[in-house]
DUF2752 domain-containing protein (Luteipulveratus flavus), 145 residues
Amino acid sequence: MLRAVRSPDPRPDHQHAPRSLRAWWAGGLVVAVTAAAVLPPSAVSGGPTICPFRLLTGLPCPACGLTRSWAHAAHGDLSGAFALHPLGPVTLAAAVVTVLLVLLRRRLPAGRPVRLLTVVLAAVLAAYGVTRMVLVARGTWPNPY
C-alpha cells in the first residue's frame, strides 16, 4: 500500500506569520504598552467611546475596559485595573513580556503550550465578554463605561 509522505515544514512554528506581520504586531504592542505607561488613568477614564461595537449596540464588547484597565495597572492601581476589566492586568503582563522579548531580539515562544494558553485566554475573554453583555442588557451588571 502506498502512502503519501508529507515533507516536514522547515520553518519553526513562530515563523508561520510573515515577518512584516510580526513586526506590525510587536510595534502595536510597544505603542499600546507605552501609552498605558505614559497616560495617566484620569486621561483615559473620561474619554469618548471609541469601541465600534459599543457605539452600534450600546453594549460593551469583550475587550471594553482593557485600555482603562491597562492604564490603571501600569500606574500601580491593580484594584482599579481589575475592577475595570478582570483580564486587563493579565493581558498587560503578557504584552510587556512580548515587547521585552522583541526588544531583546529573543524568539517569541512557540509550540503547543503557548497556543493552548492563547486559546484559553481568548475563550475566557469571550466568555466574560458575552456574560457581561447579557447582564448589561438585562440591567443587572453595573456598566462603568
